[in-house]
Write a structure and sequence with these properties.
445 residues; alpha+beta; three-stranded antiparallel β-sheet; 12 helices; 15 strands; SET domain-containing protein; SET_dom_sf; SET_dom; SET_domain_protein
Amino acid sequence: MKRGFLNNKKAALYPKGESTTTVVVNPISAPPSNAIKAVAADREPAVQVMKVPHGKVKNTALPAGYIPTKPKMLSEAEAMRANQPAIITIPARSAGQPPDPDGHSEWIVNGTTKNKVINAPGYPQPVPKSPKGKSYEIKSTPTMGKGVFATRDIPMGEIIFAERPSIVSPRALKPISKVNPNDYSLADYTKILLFEREQQLEMAASRMEPETRARLMALQNSHKEDGSGPINGIVRTNGYQVMNLRDGDGEFKEGDSSNLHYYSVLCDVGSRINHSCIPNVTHAFKISAFSMVFMASRDIKAEEQLFFSYCGIHKSASDRKAELEPYGITQCICAACINATPETDTLRKTFSARVQAYKSQSLTWEQLPKGRKLPAETLDEMLRFQKAVVKEGLDVNDDYWTDFIPSLATAFRKAGKPSEEMMVIREFMKWGNYMKEKRAIRGLA
Ligand SMILES: C[S@@+](CC[C@H](N)C(=O)[O-])C[C@H]1O[C@@H](n2cnc3c(N)ncnc32)[C@H](O)[C@@H]1O
């Protein structure tokens, strides 16, 4: 990514000081516990940040002795010089100009990260569209509140809808006042950081059009009694963590899940997608359009409900249940949870290791001497695994499943079954195109 935003051509497109609020971050000397970690030096040296706590935070009262202050506002130029996080409207809104037809986001962002977006090739692109027009509707469900439903058959890989988020905020909690973590217990310090995050979010929301704010405030909040604050509760209930929008200079790597550097994206329609451990929707953040793109991760039939997984799907039913509790989901009623057995738990927990094992075995199969066939039991075992994975709904995991399909093609070839190999290759083309599309949206292709 390019550096030197203030000196480049795009800086001129982004008027200095325009609708920008900066919250001053106070450097803190020492962490109160190892739950509070120093972020990479390329973000902000000496600033301590904290992972957003998972689940409920019990202590709801602000600690005695903490005096809330109104965050100070800096101009954008000052913020850039100090490399402080600012609240910006993106794409920029110039006075007297009509709003962007795809809407605007309020983004609590570190200066250098903002540069990554505005310097992205093609920025600001329009929000991508579904190829066949509006393909979803929001309806009430019997047990999950509102939900999003397909209004037509949608093939795997196709864009269902895309939207510009209302608020994008850092995953990590940072102090914005001169609070010293050493003066507080971890629980109290957590409360303060949550309170100060709410202050930032309130500043961001106060810049929105009234209708956008009203839609945001109407979203579900499963963190009402834990002191998260009304907007932060909504962000914690509905926000998507995006992996290609991150602070620091390091490039995004598939599988990197350290969430201190990432951002949480709050959508409007996307926030109405309910959870299932057998999801049919995946998402990718398109940096150049500053938008979240929702795609079918399997073929979806008209009237089917869209589902995203709020928990890790490679986990046992009881571990998934524990991850879902903060969302107020006490019992997931998806088929995987209802029909969970020790065998399905094992399948889920060992899924990625088995896929990887087949992948490395397939390399050795390539070395089989001419005339030697793969033992029939090996192929049968793979086919049993494939059948179990499809039944369990795990064939949606693109990061792993795409690794299995070529291994299976190799197994068929080495077992002397060329027509079955061709069928698998055709399947792989479908998955491969889908992965390519997703990587292109993320700007990685
Ligand atoms: C991101 S919102 C999804 C949209 C939400 N149903 C609404 O009406 O706005 C998340 C909330 O939806 C509900 N929810 C989502 N998936 C659910 C499920 N599988 N079972 C029960 N409730 C669910 C929970 O209340 C959860 O906190």
